[in-house]
Each structure stands twice: as C-alpha cells, then as structure tokens.
C-alpha cells in the first residue's frame, strides 16, 4: 500500500558533512497492517515518517502509494494527504489552545472542501471514541484530559477518511492508564475500517501491544524487520537484542556504552560496530564488521537482520 | 531509626478557585541505603510530596503532618538549619531540571558551585572533586569544560546526578530522572543510580509515572492515586489494589501472550483534586467496585507479604 524504496534523506549544513538521517531504507506497509518503526532518539524515525508523507523530499529513492510513485506537485500532494494522515506526538503541542474541538477537527475537511462538515466532524469524533460527539464540540483543549486530547488529534486525522495513518509517538506523552485506551483505539480502527498504520516509537511494549510487524532502525537504516512475535521474542540483530535486554522483564542486561551515534559520521563497515556487544566481546567476526559493508534489507515480510553473523 | 519518616503528610494549594488537595495523608519511611519508588499518574501529587520533604513548596501551599529526616523535624527547622540540610544531607534532582542548567556556564563550574558557595572546598580542591564526580557518573574529565548544549540529554541527566552528589548527601530525591530519555540511555542512567546506592550507601526516593523504571531500581514501591498512597510493598511482589494492577497492565511484558494485540487501559479520567469523588476516590474508574465503594473510604490495610493496600476487596484476615 505505502512503500519506500531505497529511500535516502540528507540534511546539508554549511561547513559540516551532511547528516544522512535516512540512509537507504526499504519499507512497506500493507493494507490493514500495523507496522511499528522502533529505534533510539535521532535514528531517523521522524524524518522517515515525514518523507513518507511527502513533507520532506528524498535525496534519493522513492515513496510510492498503491504502486504509484509520489508526485510532489501541490495538487497531487493534497490528494495524497487525504489518504495518508499524520498523527503527531504531544497532543498539547499539536492542538491550538484557542480553537474548539469542533474547529480543530473541521480544519482538514474544510481545506479539502468536504460537504456535510458537521456530520463529518461528529463521525470522526465518535470513531475516535469521543461520544456523544456533540458534547465535545465546544470544548477547548485545556478542558480535556490527556487521553481525550490525543483522541481529538486522531479524530482530526480520521475526518478525511484516510487509508493509512502515520503516528509519531502517539502515546509517549500520555499516562499509563490512558495509553492502553489509545492503543486499543488504533487496533479497533484497523479491525473496523481496515486502516493501515505506521507507528513510530521507541516503546517496545507498544509494538508488542499492537503491531503486526516491527522494523528496527539504527542510524538511518533498518537493521532488522519481521513479524512482531519473531523479532521481539527471538531477535537476531545484536542491537535489537540489546534494546530488548534493558526491559525490566529481561533476565540479563546488555547496556550499550556510548551515546546515540551521529548521522554526519556514519561508521565504516557495519554502522553499529563501535557499540556492538559482539565486537566488544572480541568475536572473530570483528574485523569483518569494521570493514565490510552490509546490504540494504529489502522490504519483505519475513524476518531478516542486517548483521554479518546472520548473513 | 529510619533515615526519613513521613507521618500523615498533607499538602493543600490554596488558589483563587479554591483548595487543591494535592497530597492527602501520606505516611512512608525510608531506611539508610534503601531505595523507595513512588509511582502514580500525572497530577497524583508525586512532585508535591517530593518538594514538601525539603520545604521547597511555593507560599500558597499549606503543609500539615510530620517529616523526620535523621530524626529531626523538617517542618520545625529554623531557616539556617534547613539550608544546611538541603545541601549537605539531602538533595533533589528536580523533574525536568536538565533543561534548567545554565546555558552559558560550563558544566564543571555548575557542579563546583555549591562546593564553593558553601566554602566546602578551595577552587583547586573543587576542580579535583568535579573530575571525581564526572567519573562517578561515567563522563570523561574534559566534559567539565563543555556547555550544556554540547552534551546529549542522557549526559545532561548525568550532570544533574553529579550535582546532586557533590555534597555527599545521605538522601537523594529524584523526580522523574529518566523521563524523556531513550530506552538505552535510560538504562545507562538507572544502572548508574543503582550502582551509587549500592557502593555509597545512599538512600533514594525515586519518583516516576513509569512503573518499569522503578521496578528494577527500587526495593519497595508506593503507588499514589489522587494524593494518597493506595498501595505499598516490595517491588518484587504482586499488586493487590485494582489501580496498581491497571497501572502494571498498561506496561505489557514483551513476549507475554496475554498482552499481545490486547493493550490494557483504564477508562475514565484522572480525578480532579478540587472535586474528589466520595468514598474510595478510585470508584468511578474501578472495574471491580462494589456498591459500598462510593460511600466507604478504606484506609491502607495489611495485604500480606509486607504489603498494604487501600481497597475493600483486600481482606485483612486473608493475610
Ligand atoms: N532539518 C534538519 N536539519 C539537519 N539535521 C536534521 C534535520 N532534521 C533531523 N535532523 C537530524 O537527523 C537525524 C534524525 O532525526 P529524526 O528526528 O528523524 O530522529 P528520530 O528518530 O525521530 O528521533 P526522536 O526519537 O528523538 O524523535 C538526527 O540526527 C537529527 O539531528
Ligand atoms: N503551585 C501549584 N498551585 C496549585 N496547584 C498545584 C500547584 N502545583 C501542583 N498543583 C496541583 O497539585 C496536584 C499534584 O501535582 P504534582 O505536580 O504534585 O503531581 P505529579 O504527580 O508530580 O504529576 P506529574 O506526573 O505530572 O509530574 C495537581 O492537581 C496539580 O495541578
Ligand atoms: S555486523 Fe558485526 S558489528 Fe554489526 S551488528 Fe553484526 S556483529 Fe555487530
Ligand atoms: S475500594 Fe472499591 S472502588 Fe476502591 S479500589 Fe477497592 S474495589 Fe475499587
Ligand atoms: Mg522523532
Ligand atoms: Mg511531577
């Protein structure tokens, strides 16, 4: 349905090497599928999401929707953004404090000139679980709970009847007790409306809760992907193994040293080698890791990992 | 004697629209070298409780009850004594404080400041101490010359911990020390905190809305709801109060089939501290509430295995 092929996004800056925020990504989200894109801060998740929405133009590679490459002409983009909607993290930041719930949700339908505005807004609010919708029309964001605000943001996206949602950290700023409510909503929208979703997160529990497939991103690349059960239960890539090992339920911790790496200076060979626990333990594969590049993983549903140990 | 003993503490903010009952009769104790975690959702009164320990609340807050730190009554302390306690015996890592580092002062100078202000060290000794502190929190000595914007979020949080350690306190109160940090960086900071408690016998009071952060670092947990502790017990045990159970279910165990494609939530809204429900304050959201719950408020009662819980369904005789 939505696919990225060999996608690259670079940010140039004066006097410094370009930041290769997305550095060769193949990714596909099928109809009615929920894919979780996980990885640490700065690994390029938001940049990838924005590029999939056409908000950022790729340096190389293509985004395609329903098999057709995305056109960046204003008209085509506008039509595209009815089908593919973005839900941002931080509902307080993405809602205008002086706008009522009605106005916030009606914005999209107005831009696209949809008829029956009130009906569209009411329907979107009830789909997002704000029922009866009329009760919420005239409320302001500060009069809503955190979970309700996030529902308003989701309703705004649903008002255009999209086929795909791209949600960037949809529950990161929400309380634990509200979090489940929003995740259940995403699952229900998939079941009832056949909605596809790409959920960007660094929360592995969220992926376990709702995703059909998981893609693990490290420094601009997808290093492991596959069905959620396989990837989260039996990760093959050392980076995924380390991420899972720091969860409280894990018996043994692999705490990687060093900070998240810098996309202006991507290491040679395997980009993870300076922090890889397998290399640190002096594995015989280490020299290969430091010098030999790895292929870019294709967009296939089967489990796969970009690591010299598994290739 | 416990290092910290809080007895029936209440804090009320008096604002134009009325009284906000932020903390309502909290009692807890912390032994030397022990780590106690306080968990609860936004607005449950965690930060208010932490600030009350060292009388750091704004003027419109009224504090009642008793706080004993090393046997001394904090609420009765004279101003001078209180100041001495704040830098020498207990220090707080404030929520969001990593954003409060002075952007135009080098990290090393900020860590050294309390040592110099309180004349605990000569400038030379202070410099040596800064290097020592940076090493303890896993940062290289040259970082002393960096400015806050030149280090990552996780490193800034380490700087905050180094500052809290500078005067060798007995007690550290850490309010959401790893919120907004990445999983891996969070694990690094938590491992550091755990190490410091173990190696230096410091007591820790750690606050978070994320149960998984506390479960591993703390020996005991207290769960707050609407300004009250509704459950307290060893962090390794099983929760008995329906609210704690809902909180725990919201953080799924990766690999557990029961939570796969089945996110657990809790309906309803967090209570408004200006309009608290009658009876058990949790009853409007409680999935197993009885008819009596809307009228009868239950105190903490023994719930077995050194645990207490404030719920009518926890039968005292069963333990
Ligand atoms: N407009 C920009 N100009 C220059 N560099 C950028 C720009 N946007 C992003 N970057 C860099 O690209 C990298 C990826 O950023 P991105 O926001 O995609 O990460 P992320 O995975 O979403 O992180 P987070 O979890 O913190 O949101 C980062 O190193 C960031 O500094
Ligand atoms: N200065 C203040 N004046 C009035 N009310 C306040 C003040 N500070 C906090 N409150 C209220 O007291 C209650 C408890 O707030 P507190 O900051 O202690 O919660 P918390 O548990 O730390 O929440 P969070 O997880 O969001 O940090 C809230 O309802 C809050 O709105
Ligand atoms: S290729 Fe080598 S460095 Fe990269 S993840 Fe695998 S073992 Fe580690
Ligand atoms: S006392 Fe009643 S309402 Fe309160 S937690 Fe127990 S069962 Fe639920
Ligand atoms: Mg992001
Ligand atoms: Mg707080």
Topology, element by element:
The complex is a heterodimer of chains A (311) and B (319).
Chain A: E1 2-13, E2 16-29, E3 34-38, H1 45-52, E4 60-65, E5 68-69, H2 74-83, E6 84-87, H3 91-94, H4 101-111, H5 117-127, H6 146-158, E7 164-168, H7 176-193, E8 196-201, H8 204-210, E9 213-218, E10 221-227, H9 228-233, H10 238-245, H11 277-280, H12 286-291, E11 304-305
Parallel strand pairs in A: 3-8, 3-9, 6-7, 7-8
Antiparallel strand pairs in A: 1-2, 1-4, 4-5, 9-10, 10-11
Helix pairs in contact in A: 4-5, 4-6, 5-6, 6-7
Chain B: E1 4-15, E2 18-30, E3 35-39, H1 46-53, E4 61-69, E5 72-73, H2 79-88, E6 90-93, H3 107-117, H4 123-136, H5 153-165, E7 171-175, H6 183-200, E8 203-208, H7 211-217, E9 220-225, E10 228-234, H8 242-250, E11 301-302, E12 308-309
Parallel strand pairs in B: 3-8, 3-9, 6-7, 7-8
Antiparallel strand pairs in B: 1-2, 1-4, 4-5, 9-10, 10-12, 11-12
Helix pairs in contact in B: 3-4, 3-5, 4-5, 5-6
Bound molecules: adenosine-5'-triphosphate (2 copies), iron/sulfur cluster (2 copies) and magnesium ion (2 copies).
One magnesium ion (MG) binds at residues 45-46, 168 of chain A.
